[in-house]
Amino acid sequence: MSIVVTGASGFVGGAIARSLAKSGHQVISLSRTCPDFAEPLTGDIGLPNTRKRPGVWHLDWDIRNPAPEVVKERADAAQAVVHAAGCMNDWMTASYAHAVNVTGTRNVLDAFPDSNFIYFSCALVYDPQVDLDGAYEESALVTAGRYTSELERSLVEAERVVHRVRPDAVILRPGPIYGAGDRNTMPYILKRVENGVLALPAGGKKRITLCHIDNAVAAVEAAIKNPHINGPINVGDPEPYVLQKAINTILARSESHNIVKFEEMPADLSKLKAWWWERKAKMAGGAKKIEKALARQNPEVLKKARAKARPLLTRFAVRQLVHDRTLNLSRLNTLLGVHPVQGLAPRTGELPDDPE
Questions:
Q1: H helices within the chain, ranges in order?
Q2: pLDDT tens track for 236-266
Q3: 141: CATH
Q4: Which residues form the NAD-dependent epimerase/dehydratase domain (predicted)?
């Protein structure tokens, strides 16, 4: 099967593309940069040796712009499209968030109007200001005023575009994704560790549905195999985690094997500190620096810009940490037939009984 994957140069898209190729599919990667595991396609994209051979083949496309002709020529051959490209930074301008996550999604939809369409969204489309206790898919997409960042608002709008243009599409909503190659979830949290102590709003004691990357990939593969399924589907590990235990489990299994102690930051104080960090970043033009670095398409420049420009703590992050964020996975189980693994299942003697 010929399958298009957008965003294959990223953590999630890359894992999806590699797994599909390993399963014997021909994968066409579409992104601004070529993944190191893909072979660039130039000139005649219909070269005989790339037509049926499994593997990952890459075409450059900045999805903020309409698809170039070389991409449109692949439309008829693409039996499925997995749209995993997007910007997941909570510190970006409204214009950039809209250009990538909303306009970009519409451009991908327009380029592949007849292919089985799987949109990779996330659980940020649920109300960020209340506890989620086994949230069902229909409880998402609340009014715009409930969302606290341009990231969330752009993701909600992107889902609405998919609903409107392709009601037959599958929309996958994973919880925060972790696993080998994670560049966002755990690195962002662990930046706050000082002298073995991690100060978090609510002390990391809230329950959350996390998603191992293998479970995310399994959901995509099941959606491809079941093109008659449509609508939003939550994705995650089968049982929620207490965040602090999940963090220490990941650390215990890392090369350092160092676990941390947790310090509880009151929610109101956390929001005040986040406001101060945001104000400082805005005065320095933080979000615009990141946007300019993204436009240059230089990974090292982008890494440095993010390190300097992104606030150490944002009100968006605080709201994610002071509420329970658990998802109902019944549609994942019954419609897609996916029974995910508990990626952080406890092992004897791995952690202290009650990490502080």
A1: 11-22, 48-51, 69-72, 94-97, 104-111, 150-165, 185-190, 213-225, 243-252, 267-283, 286-296, 299-309, 315-321, 330-334
A2: 999 999 999 999 998 888 776 678 899 998 8
A3: 3.40.50.720
A4: 3-236
Convert the pLDDT of each residue in 147-193 to its tens digit: 989 999 999 999 999 999 999 999 999 999 999 889 888 887 887 88
Q: How many domains does the chain have?
A: 1
Does residue 333 have a pLDDT over 90?
Answer: yes
- Residue 109's identity, in one-letter code, is L
The CA distance from 233 to 162, in Å, is 14
- Which token pair is 253? 């299994």
d(CA 300, CA 306): 10
231-235 vs 177-178, strand pairing mode: unpaired
Q: Is residue 90 a part of any domain in this protein?
A: yes
Angle, alpha carbons 25-29-30 (nearest 5°): 145
**CA pair distance 70, 41, nearest whole angstrom:** 10
Closest CA relative to residue 123, chosen from 339, 271, 328: 328
pTM: 0.88
Domain range for 243 is 2-336
The answer to the question of residue 356 being in a domain is no
Locate 297 and state its tokens: 């398409």
- 235: phi then psi, degrees, rounded to nearest 5: -135, 135
